[in-house]
Every structure is written in structure tokens, then in C-alpha cells.
Amino acid sequence: MSGPSTYEPKTGFTKWLDSRLPIIRLGWDSFVDFPTPRNLNYWWTFGGILAIFLMIQIVTGIVLAMHYVPHEAYAFDSVERIRRDVNFGWMIQSMHANGAAFFFVAVYLHMFRGLYYGSYKAPREVLWILGVVIYLLMMATAFMGYVLPWGQMSYWGAIVITNLIGALPFVGDAIREWLWGGFSVGQATLNRFFSLHYLLPFVIAGVVGLHIWALHVPGNGNPVGLDVRGGDDGKKDTLPFHPYYTVKDGFAILVYLMVFCVFVFFLPTVLGHADNFIEANPLSTPAHIVPEWYFLPFYAILRAITFDIGPIDAKLGGVLLMFGAIAILFVLPWLDTSKVRSMRYRPLTRWFFIFFVLACFGLGWCGAKNPDDYVLGIEGFKFLYFGQFLTLYYFAYFLVVLPVMGIVEKPKERPASIEAAVLGNNTNAQPAE
Amino acid sequence: MTEENGALDGHGEEPSRRDFIYIAAGGATAVGGGLVIWPFIDQMNPAADTLALGSIRVDISQLLPGSEMTVMWRGAPVFIRHRTEDEVAEARDVELSALPDEDARNENLPDGTPALDANRVLRPEFLIVKGNCTHLGCVPTSQETNAGGEYNAWYCPCHGSHYDKSARIRRGPAPENLPVPDYFFESETTVKIGLNDEERANSGWAVA
Q1: ipTM surpasses 0.85
Q2: Alpha-carbon distance B45 to nearest alpha carbon in chain A (angstroms)
């Protein structure tokens, strides 16, 4: 989609700069004149929202680092001091903590958008893979950031997750000690987590640059999943990014920020856990260790494996499956055999997708509950069994549904073009495959 | 001279000289790179002062039979329990085949030592084990607070692992027995946890 550049420098300075560093041209071609499918809906605004939240997290984080003390004796108190004594610290700390949650809400919606509209399919495989890399970096950053306040959940979350590494055969113990920098989670661990938590957002920003670069080669996908036509027809299928999508993205960003502000100002701790207002104590484990909500589905998958699988014991099996749940996203472009991108035209797979989304929410529910409790109080129906069933469905969606449905499903009739889909002129409709 | 000309146009008898330079330069770069990277990886391993803090002395003179204490060692809890005769008898009245983990997990004894209670204690009345569940590291609760689980000893509330009177795993997801740290009795009432080589040689540990 990156055709010939339409930028024309007008003043003497911009002409001079353009022949030396064409940075204005890059911005113009990427965010002003960039041809964008004219049928993008609001599910396409989360990319912009995510960019804003990356900036919010970096700016608030740099400010917090001016007041935070990465020491096991002072970390907890320094965060409380930020919340009580530092000028506007109450607001900036709340923006950072809630910002992480809103960052994950946006990234999950962005990912479900990609799954529903087939954004991962050719020619956007590298774009999708870079997105999964960003997601992994976000998870590492969020996990280490949650340790920094050094509350009970911070500490015990770090203990549990680092102990997962110990499940690896042969090298597990050595790697765990290397991560800890000692014989348990302690000062060395906290200090290095702070260092890496400061570093990784800038790595994310770099990969986001690659993500946008990879987006601007094929251009945006769109809800009907058709390619933008070549030649003059392509102009009928697209609109310039500015003003059409700067305004649409801007509106979505404002609405999202309003919801964000409700949490920052009126519900600042509602997404947190009460135990994290108790300072870390290595001698006392909280009754019920839970990760932050955005990790709950993976926590449920981890705990779903309570049985040995051949030579793999239950603990290692859970760890492998948890990482496998993310790793499978890397090969997703080659698991889905259907040529049809959008689920709008895949009548059966669409239902499997809807159940997939429900399964993800269900796994989150299981992750938050005690595995031995009963679902909705139904005698004998433990959350463990529910989580095992949903884990099975999660993997079956990728390993069975998507490969098989692409072959057996008859897609619905699709519009002739993006233009036809928008303007209702559906004479030359493409026959169903 | 013909050989040199041959090397220049790449078709001669001796391209191996230039190949050698490429391989040697590439090899030196790879090895050098590895040597430079290693310090930046190894700096994350426990530092010398962290390792030096590796031992503590605990006064157990006040620890009455049937009670226990928790001490911090290397940043993590260690359980010291003064067992009653009944508890010792219960711990010893267990078949090896009843244990999910048949290794004593005793740092004072060789790997693979059978997990008999006698291989987990230096003096039968004092059981000393590290206090982090071998599943994911939570601190198990104890019979002291009536939360000792099925074997009325230790129970990990996080994911439901039950340990017996010898702190061996009996039921639940934990894969191993609670490990016994290296320790010996410096005197009748003092236990030293974390030993140097000389102390280890004279600690009095032996496979039962």
C-alpha cells in the first residue's frame, strides 16, 4: 500500500530538510496521506489507544522512578509515600497502576479483533508475530512492575512465578538462582526487576516501530477481509488516514481515556488486591495467591494440569502448557487453513470463535477461584474440571478447529469490493468458495 | 606466483589461505563475543556477600518437645521442630513405597539416599527442613496452628500439598520432600545451618 509519496515540501526549510532527512515525508506518508480502507470500524481504534497507553506508562513510570526506592526495606514505604506525600503522587501512581490494566484491556481487544477478522493471515504474518512479541514483552514488564511495590502479592507472586522456572529439568534450579541473585526472592531480585522494568518499555516502543512498519507495507486489513483493489479502484476502496482516521481514533481514545479517568480518580485501587497493602513477609503466605487479572487465564491453564503426562510431571506439564498457550499464537498464521479472512463470512467458525472468547473469560474466572471450589455451587463440578475443559477447548480451537474448518466449511458470499461493502453496490459479488 | 594469482581470482590451488583468515577471524569474534557476554550474565548470580551470609546459629534450648520455630536462613524460612516420641514413631512407621518422593532430599547425604526418617534427621527429636513448599514455594502451615493437613504435620494451602511428620510429601502437587539443609549441632543446644567444608566433614551425618 505504500505507493509513491505524495508529500511536497513547500517552504525553503522543509525542502532543505527533505533532501537531507525526509522525516516529515515519513510522517506524512505514514499518518496523513496513508491510504486506509474506508470501512474500518471501532475495533480498529485500539492500535492508537495502545500507542497512547504506552506513552502514558512511560511518562508516569519515569516520574515514579524519581521517588521510588528499589530496596526491600524501603520499597513498600516509598510507594506509600508517593501515594500520600509526593505532590500529585496519588494521581500519577494511580495512572500507572490502572494504566497497566487498561493497557491489557486494549491489547486483548486488539488481539481478539485480529483473531476475528483474520488479521494474522497473509500478507500480515510478520505484523502478527511482532504483535505477539510485544504482548510477551508487556507481560514480562507488567509482572516485574507488580513486584516493585513489595507487598504480599508482589512478593508471593514473584515466588510462585520464579519457582515455575525451577520446574525445567536439569537447568531449572540454576536458572532460578540466577534470576533471584540469591537463595530466594530478595534485594537482588527487586533491584534487577526495577532495572528491567525501566528498560523493557523502550524495547516495546522499538518493536512497536517495527509493528507499524510491517503494517504499512500491506496496509490495514478491514472488516470484510478483502484486499484493496489495485489502480484507480484502490482510491475508491480507501480514504486518507488524515482526517478520517485521526478523528475516528481520536474520538475512541477520548472515550477510552474517560473510562480510564473514572478508575484513576474514583476507583484507584479496585483492580488491585487487598493483600498488596501488607508489606512483603517471607514467613507468611497469603491464603490465596492470585496474579493480576490479566494473567488469570494463563494461571488457570497452569493449574489445570494436575496429572503426569508420560515422563513429564504435572508441574512441568502445567508450565509447558501455559507457555504453549502463548507460543501457539506465533504459528497461528499457518494453522488457519481458510483463505477467507473475516469471520463474517465463516458461519460455523464464527461460532467457534465466540466460544473461544467465552473460554478465555471462563479461564480467567477459573484462575481467580480455588480449584477445589464448585462452579456456581454445583456439587462435584470443581473449577479444576471446568478449567481443564476450557484449556482443552483453547488448544483445540487452534489445533483442530482452525485447520479443519478452513477445509470443510463453505464460506458465505462476500461483497465484490470494499467500496461495494460500504456503499451497498453489490453487483459483481464474488461467488462463494 | 601462480598460486597467489589463483587465490586472487578464487579459482586457484590455494583458496584455503583466505578461507582460513575468514574462519579464524569469525571464530575469534565468536569466542571473544562469548567471553565478553559471560561477565554480563554471571553478574546476576548470587554475589560474594550474599554467599558469605550463608550460615546461621540457632539456640534451641528453649524449644520444648512438641513445639517448633521458624528461622530465616538465606532469605527463606527454615522449620525446626522438636518432635515428641510419638511423632518420631509415626514418621518411622512408613513404608518407602508409600512415599511419592523416595529420595531423602538431604543436602548432607548423597543424592538417592532413601527417604527413611532416619535419613532426614541428625538427632531424631529435631527435624530441621527448609520451609518452602517444593511445588511453587509457599510457606506451608503447621500443626502448631491446627492447620497441618491430613498427616497433622504441614500443609501447603496454596495448592493443597500434605506433608507428614518427617516433612515428606504424601499427597498433592508438590513433587519433592521438604529439603533438609546442611546443618550440625555445634553444642547440645546450638544448631548451625549452612556449613563450610570442614564442618561438613565433622558434622556426624551418615546414611542409616
Answers
A1: no
A2: 5
